[in-house]
Amino acid sequence: MKTTIKDDQTRAGERRRGSQDAIAKMVTERTEMLALYCRLAGLDPFSQKQHREPAQQLLQEFCQVLVDYIAAGHFSLYERVVNGTERRRDVATLAERLYPRIADTTQAALDFNDKYDLGENGIIPPSFEPDLSRLGEELAVRIELEDQLIARIV
Q1: What is the mean pLDDT of each run of 10 residues along the chain (154 residues)?
Q2: Where is this region: Disordered (predicted)?
Q3: Most-buried pick from 41, 44, 62, 96 (CB within 10 A)?
Q4: What's the pTM value of the predicted model, to 2 decimals?
């Protein structure tokens, strides 16, 4: 089957739209996660009994959105790089350089989720505040690295 330049351009445009859609989904997940992070950071889950249940519910919601955000980035942006299917050499080179540190932030987020996805009846341990702070630092690094990659992709 003979392909034309127009066919190649059409496929390239479709790939670009796919990348842009993946980026938009990831940024939407990221925005939701950051909003929940800020709400969670503003709570004192240990102060009074009446605040414990809302804090647990918010923590549950945050953990779910955190995992969704991590998955959106991993399965949409980084998968092509890890699999070697990214065609733009400059994007692939940058992603290869950034990916190890992004993978570290992924592990930090998954570790946080494993520790604090307690279910509705779980008790939030005293280590929560410092762990949330460390997670925030890791997320800030991740966002900075993602933004570098996004700038190169679009």
Answers
A1: 60 66 90 95 61 76 95 78 76 88 95 85 82 97 94 85
A2: 1-20
A3: 62
A4: 0.81
